[in-house]
Specification:
Layout: E1 2-6, E2 13-17, H1 43-71, H2 79-96, E3 119-121, E4 124-126, E5 146-148, E6 151-153, H3 155-162, E7 178-180, E8 183-185, E9 205-207, E10 210-212, H4 214-221, E11 237-239, E12 242-244, E13 264-266, E14 269-271, H5 273-280, E15 296-298, E16 301-303, E17 323-325, E18 328-330, H6 332-339
Antiparallel strand pairs: 1-2, 3-4, 5-6, 7-8, 9-10, 11-12, 13-14, 15-16, 17-18
Subcellular location: Cell junction, Focal adhesion; Cytoplasm
Organism: Heterocephalus glaber (Naked mole rat)
Protein name: Leupaxin isoform X4
């Protein structure tokens, strides 16, 4: 009796003989070889042929499936469906061949068992092709990703959607961020709005929501001294509706400081009393001092009343009774004595 045995792992046919195997009849007479019809198959031979044919059909089917999987590249629209069917078919083929498959969990996306590579992320397991960016749906796979609200984002979408924007270039800030004036900046984009220099240890000054270095801020926006036109930084004086460095607030003619604390204004500039009256023409022509009270005007000059006198006898003159000679005033008697013929 012929016994057939098929191994589960290797398609191998083994013939084993039992102890009660019947031997064929042996003829003692040797006949000359000649063509004759094939002898009828025994039952064992027929079973063996049938088994081999079945194995050949299985190999051909597996080869066809493998060839189709190599040639067919699914598009984006049927990628998930075709890949799932391929994986399911492969798993079924392995089971048909007697190879057990142990799932590595269930995919959080498709809820199907994971038989091959697996990604563990966000506290769940995924098929690599099902672990995708929640915004653009591109496969993340084993690449870096960002998590927000329990879902995954590719770096490009995460930065575009959630990263702070630079107040200068409006691009997402991916690495270091600088916060100033209630805004965020790339460190290399936070610089003086006037000169373009990056700020040093001295910091910056803000004007109209723009940052400036100290030098440009003072030059452009700080009050200027009316005496020297330079920025006023520390101590200053307020006078004539403007500010002054203390050392710049002096008489506009003699540059002397106002030690008494009083000054005279003329055309928006400060003057001492003497030069104020000099510019206004109110100095006494007799004594050269300012006239603050009554005055006498004569010969294009102004005089203190007590200084309007005869140039020869020094007698005080009345405005209507005097004589003039060589820009000097004389009383009538002295004029007659000195200049009469």
């Amino acid at each position: 009796m012929v016994k057939l045995k098929l191994s589960s792992s290797i398609a191998e046919v083994q013939l084993e003989h039992t102890t009660n195997t019947q031997e064929p009849n042996i003829h003692s007479e040797v006949q000359e070889p000649k063509e004759s019809p094939a002898p009828p198959k025994t039952l064992a031979a027929a079973q063996l042929d049938e088994l081999m044919a079945h194995l050949s059909d299985m190999q051909a089917e597996v080869a066809v499936k493998a060839d189709i999987s190599k040639k067919h590249v699914p598009g984006k629209q049927d990628h998930g469906v075709s890949l799932d069917s391929m994986l399911g078919g492969l798993e079924q083929d392995l089971q048909d061949l007697g190879i057990a498959t142990v799932p590595k969990g269930h995919c959080a996306s498709c809820r199907k068992p994971i038989a091959g590579k697996v990604i563990h992320a966000l506290g769940q397991s995924w098929h690599p092709e099902h672990f995708v960016c929640t915004h653009c749906k591109e496969e993340v796979g084993f690449r870096p990703f960002f998590e927000r609200s329990g879902v995954a984002y590719c770096p490009e979408d995460y930065h575009r959607l959630f990263s702070p924007r630079c107040a200068y270039c409006a691009a997402p800030i991916r690495d270091r961020v600088l916060t100033a004036m209630d805004q965020t900046w790339h460190p290399e984009h936070f610089f003086c709005s006037h000169c373009g220099e990056v700020f040093g240890p001295e910091g910056f000054h803000e004007k109209d929501k723009k940052p400036y270095c100290r030098k440009d801020f003072l030059a452009m926006f700080s009050p200027k001294c009316s005496g020297c036109s330079r920025p006023v930084l520390e101590n200053y004086l307020s006078a004539l509706d403007t500010v002054w460095h203390p050392e710049c607030f002096v008489c506009g003619d003699c540059f002397s400081s106002f030690s008494t604390g009083s000054f005279f204004e003329l055309d928006g500039r400060p003057f001492c009393e003497l030069h104020y009256h000099h510019r206004r023409g109110t100095l006494c022509h007799g004594c050269g001092q300012p006239i603050t009270g009554r005055c006498i005007s004569a010969m294009g000059h102004k005089f203190h009343p007590e200084h309007f006198v005869c140039a020869f006898c020094l007698t005080q003159l009345n405005k209507g009774i005097f004589q003039e000679q060589n820009d000097k005033t004389y009383c009538q008697p002295c004029f007659n004595k000195l200049f009469s013929l």
